[in-house]
Amino acid sequence: MDRILVLVRHGQSEWNLKNLFTGWKDPGLTEKGVEEARAAGRSLKARGLNFDRAFTSNLVRAQHTLKLILSELGAPDVPTARDLALNERDYGDLCGLNKDDAREKWGDEQVHLWRRSYDVQPPGGESLKDTVARVLPYYIQAILPAVLRGERVLVAAHGNSLRALVMVLDGLTPQTIPSLELATGLPLVYRLKPDSTVETKEILHP
């Protein structure tokens, strides 16, 4: 039994390129983002990985990334669930603001706290702790049971919703999670033990 779980952050979005806080806003992928998603699909195909089930968020950039990956795998009809539980962190009042402009207005330290701390909320938005609180129950109820049944599962989502999952899988703490960066379009391949802990982890580079 494989018990394979693959996590992929969506390819570069138009707002990533413009250095804007995105959150629950819904920009599409750039040309680079499309290529990153396709490259992720090719990397997975080169490893002989195929999938029984996929999960993604309610946001277009993650859904498009998943579609491109499955297309590269020649498996466009993999059963897919979409859920806002996997959405990016809601950055609240920061959504749409340029990150450099935000630093000028509030200072480097404050913006860094909003972006990277575990439990500090941006104005009107979610902390990573809040994001974990919605991602983790969905993982436990919907995603993990499929993996433990032996299904190969692909999750295409966002930097912070996936950081929430990696925090649990890798046993990171509120003190160590701020330093974790997830690159766009690079698959994280986990093989789980029967007790749901991690047996192996690999990052697939193109």
TrEMBL record:
Binding residues annotated for substrate, in chain numbering: 9-16, 22-23, 61, 88-91, 99, 115-116, 159-160
Active site (catalytic residues): 10, 88
Gene Ontology terms, MF aspect: phosphoglycerate mutase activity
Name of the protein: 2,3-bisphosphoglycerate-dependent phosphoglycerate mutase
Enzymatic reactions: (2R)-2-phosphoglycerate = (2R)-3-phosphoglycerate
Site annotation Transition state stabilizer: residues: 158
Source taxon at top rank: Bacteria
Assembly behavior: Homodimer.
Primary role: Catalyzes the interconversion of 2-phosphoglycerate and 3-phosphoglycerate.
Organism: Methylocapsa polymorpha
Record keywords, A-Z: Gluconeogenesis, Glycolysis, Isomerase
Family indicated by similarity: Belongs to the phosphoglycerate mutase family. BPG-dependent PGAM subfamily.
Lineage of the organism: Bacteria, Pseudomonadati, Pseudomonadota, Alphaproteobacteria, Hyphomicrobiales
